[in-house]
Amino acid sequence: MKSGGRRLLITMLLLAMLPGTARTEATDTLTVVTLNLWHDQRDWPKRLSVIIATMRELRPDVLCLQEVLQHATLRNQAETLADSLGYHVHFTSVDSVHRAKRYGNAILTRHRVLHAGGKNLDPSNDYRTVAHVRIDFPGRVVDVYDTHLHHTPEGSPIRATQIRDLLAFIDSTRADGAVVLAGDFNAELETPEMRLLSGDFVDAFKAVHPSATREEAVTFNAIFGVDPGAIDHIFVSKAARTLLTPRASEVLFREPGPDSVWASDHFGVVARLEFEARGPASMRASAATPRPSDRASYPPHWWAPVPKEGAPEWEILPQEAGPGEVILSKRHELGLLSNFAPTPFTYRGRRYASLEGFWQMMLYPEDANDPRAKHPGLEWKYTRDQVANMTAFEAKKAGDLAEENMRKMNIGWVSFEGRRFEYRSAKPREHYRLIAAATREKVRQNPEVQKVLLATGDLVLKPDHHQEPDAPPEWRYFEILTRIRKELARKE
User: Fold this and answer.
1) What range does the domain containing 111 cover?
2) Which run of H or of E encompasses 415?
3) Cα separation values, 327 from 46, 305, 323, 459, Å
């Protein structure tokens, strides 16, 4: 038997001989592979044969690919591989669909695809993407994300920006089920940028082999260049209603195939992940609407009646909460969770006095060359920096003035760091992702806010003001806070 065959056999045995495997149905485990394809370098047809042979043996549920290429004389590599395996394929690229040459990431799966999407990652001049597929795994929903980050050794700050954008995208698009994040991160786990992932994700290989040497974990073939270490990873989310626990993981393609052909300049990674509900009984209890008697576990003043006479028309009073609900009233400490609250935080190197200031600041011109600043007949009462340092109704009123100017200009976009995007969208998009990421930073950087949020336990969070029935997702700040609360609770 060739060395490559022996390696494959060892991998398959590791995947098969897990504790309890004989007692577990196949639908209890998810097998994921990630591989950087190395586009069309060397002899692509022969490399393709090596990859196909291994994938047919492993039959992964999901295959995440990076450096996927297509051009005038080369069919999309992921589509070719998918056809050979009988898989569905989803490809993302910064290149227009009208271009013959396109380069990007792809996710292949043998399960039904419920949703497919993606995003161009910040900074835009690095031309990186993340692909997203939600699959219908028997009886479960799994969100899979596949990315390829900046490549230079000195590019840690760029990768950090990409990871922050990636996390915001995952937060805004994932369902409540399991989450898998895979790809070529061009960085080892111990680097500052990769530590941004450690709070929310577990590396499968590291979890299975906590004492692995660098040589055992490396995923780049030193034959083809300087060895950057273990830079290809498969992660599973810690913050999910249904957990995926890594049970086995190995590095693939460490030996060449027939005719001494290497699959790629990277080695691949395979992981077998086992589904594990977070205590079914307790999850059912937390998912159910809490009983009114549950209020006994919380401060009674959260529901203390407030006279309607004299109350603002916009306000939903504390006593109007339904069973198992609490109003995030500004009349007591739950007001710290409001966007209006003076809870300063730093986001992407800039300080903001409140979430409301951050939000309304995006409506204002960024500089003198901004079309909003140059539009004739408009007065901007405040500068962008001034609004960023506002809180509460002062910031809201500044936003109202800006919206009036937007109506005069007939525009529906705002901006951040030079990028324009839709202000009111029916689905979570760029504006939502920024608000969700800033909310997470507000909670993280203000211990009292985090304490108050966790104190709400399993209560259903509700706003203290009336909202439009079709309000965009980012307007529903209480839902964003609920998701953050779940993440925090699972870390404790």
Assistant:
1) 3-282
2) strand 413-416
3) 63, 12, 11, 10
